[in-house]
Amino acid sequence: MKRYRAEIEGIVQGVGFRPFIYSLAVKFSLTGFVKNTAGGVYVEVQGEESACKAFFDEVITSAPEQANINNISISEISIKQESEFVIQTSISGEHNTLISPDIAVCDDCLRDVFDPKNRRYGYAFTNCTNCGPRFSIIEDIPYDRANTTMREFVQCESCQSEYDDPHNRRFHAQPNACEVCGPALRYSNGETGNSALQSAISDIKAGKIVAIKGLGGYHLCCDAFNDNAVTELRERKNREEKPFAVMVKDISTAERYCYINNSEKALLTSSKKPIVLLKKRNRNMFQAASPNNSRLGVMLPYTPLHALIMQHFDCLVMTSANISDSPMFFEESPELFRIADGVLSHNRNIKRRVDDSVMTVVNNTPHFFRRARGYAPVPINIDCDKEILALGAQQKNTFCVTKQQKAFLSSHIGELDDIDTIQQYISEISSFCHLFGIKPEMVACDMHPDYFSTDYARTFDLDVLQVQHHYAHFASVLAENAVKENAIGFIFDGTGYGTDKTIWGGEMLFGQVNSAKRAGHLRRFPLLGGEAAIKQPWRIGLALLQIAFGGDMSSYFPEHEGEAKILLSACEKGINSPLTSSMGRLFDGIAAIIGLRTECSYEGQAAIELEQIIADEAIDSNYSFEIAYENDNMIFDWISLVRAVVADIKAGISKGNIAKKFHNVCVDLVVNAAKIARERYYTSAVALSGGVFMNEYLLKHCQYRLQANGFNCYVNVKVPANDGGISYGQAAVAANYEKDFELCVLRSREE
Ligand code: ZN
Ligand code: ZN
Ligand code: FE
Question: Which ligand has its closest atom nearest to the C-alpha of 105?
């Protein structure tokens, strides 16, 4: 007879871990107990030595699907008098546990919901230990009902007996509930329960816009095939053309609209159920939801409520309930009633806003556009023993806290330029520090003087490390791939503040996580009229043409000729024409020059459309970037490229072919510059990051060509390549920081 104790760390709470331990102990006839602690799960077992060994083997090999064991430490202790195995209630203490993300409804629960004989038939809040809300309802740890927003619902007898029964799938399922005791639906017409649901469904069928409270916030929802409804939704949301995501009844329905490969199918149907960007079978489908776009953001129902609604529809627009780019509503707000005809709500409170994750599959590997529901706050490995708070960038913001080799990335926060987003940002930062027991020793932020986070960094009484934007992108790739050698980084991005006070974004860096330098960049051009050029790519096209051809190019875009003259003369005088080396803007400029898009309704639209028109046929490219040198830096000169594009337009070459040649020359640039850098710097490691690498064609071909040329090519997989990954990169730099250098400045707390 032996007795062992074990401490198990990882995602082990809220995932059916204690019932799993209980049934294993029963299986091997062991006595003892299991309990949640703030550090994870604590187990003591007693029995035959071989049975104990077999027990621990199975703990590791057959843990519940949603569990993730990071560490298990087992030691022998002295035998006790006892006759059974029990689950003890939780104690609080040191905060060391990991918090499970929200999990999409499981198949067993769906069966309950659709079985007329089941007591949960039609119940929208059905869940079990394998599924349901977690991160969006947790207020404190350990993860027990009393520490969630389910606290106010007292379980009925039937629910309580499931909750107490170790053989039941709902044993200690914290959000366990039923029609009798749990949360209930209500509709804005006053109906509740099933009638509320039916009213909402008939309103959607009638072409109305209905707000639906989901897991981490409200969606705005309407019939995806009703163009009037979708157009009306665009007006009310003040969102002209940016695509809306849709929710589709099931995977076979999704396959009717889109091409879906096995990796995409696995992602769509996973327990995380993100929005996956898929290629439409016909570009002209869903013109209202996803105009001029060959892709469609698709997700499957991920709560019982969605599943109940989607029984009546093949496809609904399901977009975050917000106005323009402001954050999604997660509490009932009067504004919701202004944009929706009806509001389908319920009384299970959402503790924190959690947006839908958005992903795309490139080379069979999922990549994040937005890392949120289903993924946050699962930690990402980082070489860091310090406790650091990294504040991220201004757009697509996430922040990140670190502790014991783990980085906890927040869910997508959004654009830090309105008061609601900023409030949520600040409250989530303090919530993360509390939940994960982190007392930051240092704050990391961007170098941009106008970012909210740069000012906010100074409000902590701590040393602040300012990390150059593209260096943070570079470090994010190196850190998530644990690259320790020197690497060459191609960081192709929209815009980021550079150390020379110009706007960077087409950068080649060289170095490591703890020290890097700028080694090359695009030839600079002026952003005519400043930031406004982002939504008016013709201004960028004009700047490129003016430099490439000289003379007076103001009539190239005839509809803007007057404005062009003013902008060019202002530029000559150095007024409001900041210089940039941004690759994202070069894409915009080319899209404008070929007449594809001269004005955008959202950032990056021109570049996205340029990728989507790439012709299928094989075509030889005669485009090239010339590589010049300025001091020690490589300059990627696009002048002859722009001239060749204009010559192609005159020769009647199609936009699709020009787009393809342009993409290919960008791939050539990466490969050629990497070859030169390999000779100069003696390294074959290449890192790719920055928002422009959300371009699937560019990413795929760069990876392929670099590998074919003997390079080790590293990309972002665990964090987004866009600004959603910046906080993680900042944390990685701060973790390894030794001394100031060009791309990194420490401001000590006394300053
Ligand atoms: Zn379930
Ligand atoms: Zn109940
Ligand atoms: Fe960026």
Answer: 1
Tell me how far the alpha carbon of residue 12 lies from the centroid of ligand 2, in angstroms. Answer: 25
CB under 5 Å of ion ligand 3: residues: 493, 496, 723
| Predicted pLDDT of residue 37 | 82
**What local confidence, expressed as pLDDT, does residue 94 receive?**
47
Task: Give the helix ranges, DSSP H, for 304-418.
Answer: 304-310, 334-339
- Number of the ligand closest to the Cα of 173: 1
pTM of the model: 0.93
The CA 545 to ligand 2 mean position distance, Å, reads 69
Ligand nearest to the CA of 159: 2
DSSP string covering 242-301, please?
A: SPPPEEESSHHHHHHHEE--HHHHHHHHSTT--EEEEEESSTTTTTTTSTT-SEEEEE--
Cα 315 from Cα 312, distance rounded (Å): 9
- Which candidate, 38, 39, 40, places its Cα nearest to that of 17? 40
What is the dihedral sign for C-alpha 500, 501, 505, 506? Answer: negative
The list of the chain residues with pLDDT below 50 reads 93-94
Ligand 2 centre to CA of 156 (Å) is: 4
What would be the CATH architecture of the domain defined by 2-87? Answer: 2-Layer Sandwich (3.30)
pLDDT at 738: 87
CA diameter of the chain: 95
**Non-local CB neighbours of 520 within 8 Å, separated by 6+ positions:** 507, 508, 627, 633, 634, 635, 636, 673, 677
Dihedral, CA atoms, 699, 705, 706, 712, nearest 10 degrees? 90
Spell 55-68 as b/e; 16+ CB within 10 A means b. Answer: bbeebeeebbebbb
* Ligand 2 centroid from CA 181, angstroms: 4
Domain ranges in the chain are 2-87, 185-359, 373-484+724-747, 504-511+519-719
Cβ(534)–Cβ(603) below 8 Å = yes
pLDDT computed for residue 91 by the predictor = 57
Answer yes or no: same fold for 185-359 and 373-484+724-747.
no
The CATH code that applies to domain 185-359 is: 3.90.870.10
Cα(271) to ligand 2 centroid in Å equals 25
CATH fold of 373-484+724-747 = Nucleotidyltransferase; domain 5 (3.30.420)
* Ligand 1 geometric centre to CA of 67 (Å): 14
Distance 389 CA to ligand 3 centre (A): 19
Are the beta carbons of 582 and 506 closer than 8 angstroms? yes
Q: What separation in Å is there between the alpha carbon of 350 and the centre of ligand 2?
A: 20
The CATH number that domain 504-511+519-719 falls under is: 3.30.420.40
Where is 8: in which H helix or E strand?
Answer: strand 2-11
